Amino acid sequence: MQTGWITRREFLKASAAAGTAGLLVSILDLGRWPLAKAATMDPPGGWNGGPGQARYRIDGLAKVTGQKIYARDFQPIDLPNWPVKYRHALVVYATFVDHVFDGLDLDQLPNELRPVVTITAADLARDSIGIAEEDYPEGEYIVPAGKPPSYLGQALAILLFDELTAYYGAKEQIVSNGKAIRIGKAVPLPEPTSYKPETSIVHSLTREGDEHFAQTIDGPVHPSQPGATNEKAMAIVNVVGERLKSPDLDVYSHTYETPVVDPMFMEPETGLAWFDREAKTLRMLIGTQSPGYDLDAAIELFAPKECPIEIDDVHIYAAYPGGGFGGRDTSILCLYLALAAAYSDRPIRISNDRFQQFQSGIKRHASKIELTLGVSKENLIEVFRNHSILDGGGRRNVSTYVANVVGILGTGVYRAPLADIWSRARHTVSQVAGSMRGFGSFQSTFAVESMVDEIALARGLDPLEFRKLNLLQPGDTIVTGAPRTPPGLSDVCDKAMAHPLWTNRDADQKRLSTDDERYGVGVAIAMKNFGSGADAVMSQVRINPDGRLSVVTHRLAGGHQGVDLLH
Q: Do residues 409 and 298 lie in contact, with contact meaning Cβ atoms separated by under 8 Å?
């Protein structure tokens, strides 16, 4: 490694340590162990043919030759200095939310299927187990007896077994047949509430491009709340409502819904954990997208002074997640691993099967999006109202950020002179939703593009022609007011309109459709977070020939977009 450089792994390690005074935390590389049974993830020779010329994936050979790269590939025997014997941990997940949980009756199980350790909410309360405030602030990581579960998939207990046959036998009885779970009296379901903050985006500009109101000029708004800026925003919301009543606009309204979606990992979530009491070290092997979060969360569980479980060091061995990107981002599995290890005198293993992953894994948000568009006689979209609700489930996870993206993309790739966008994620009793691939663009784009198609059909227009008329153009601002738009949108439409798939679509539909199958060609245009402030190309820093440092960035207060700094 070159002097003065720091690796990503070292950076993560230092970042985690900086936030956890008095503790040693580290993220370890599986590929550096001198063990035959460990993963060999160093890229083989010949994979790189030069910049932009990779011949194959650096992990490709390891995968197709069956090397240990996923968390479920590993056993404690594979890990340096870990005890060989371990326990199998069964997390019992809630399948109901409309009744009180009255605890487990494990006496219903045959003696040979009973766990050697049972971890309940009472154990966590007795030992003053803390709350991982940053990412799991809801607490109650195990449902207390006498209360209803807060959401589907919440843990009711963690059971530890010495023998794999006992684990599988108990899982069949408890998970598949519901045996030993005592269900009490019925209770009403709580009303959904909104996770905070909600996202409001209000935009007002003329066709000539004169901006009256935008987030990048006036700042974030919540129109229903007090304050001068919010009052201005509410005035524009009211203008939107009045404009949609105007006789010179054709108004189209529709509600679109998308369902809960599971990311379907190649490998369901699995992990190993060992609390080395002598060294006061918690070690976890997990397929994770969020190793830093997992470290912090595990530390916070045992941080209260009253907690008798003393942990000085936390080590995470990060395995490959196994696809399903987003579904392991701040997954609560790390908490279950840490808790199970803390109550065991040997390493433990949690390994979800596909059914358990469906029960407990993070999902894509279900959505309900109410769209109303006002279109002029010249086929130009003049007014855009988008009110979106996401089902965030029983934990916050990253739902507020997903809802924010839904809002930013609330007008799609189209110019919106007047826009009223309101998006929020709701706390419900559903399974936890989070950051699936696409992160909010899936829901918003589906609704907006469906509406644009329906308007074009109703007006007898070519759907691509209608899109081209209303696309953001170079020099436009997106709905947040950010002064950048995706390049080449019109060019994409021109190329698509000239393509034989498009020009021959009507004839091909008649020719290729049958009584059983319907052939068709559709179109959609999407962008993802463009102009949100998270774009890698939205800022520029350069050294000018005269030695001055020039910074070009988003529009600043007063309309300035470039700042020269004397170096």
A: no
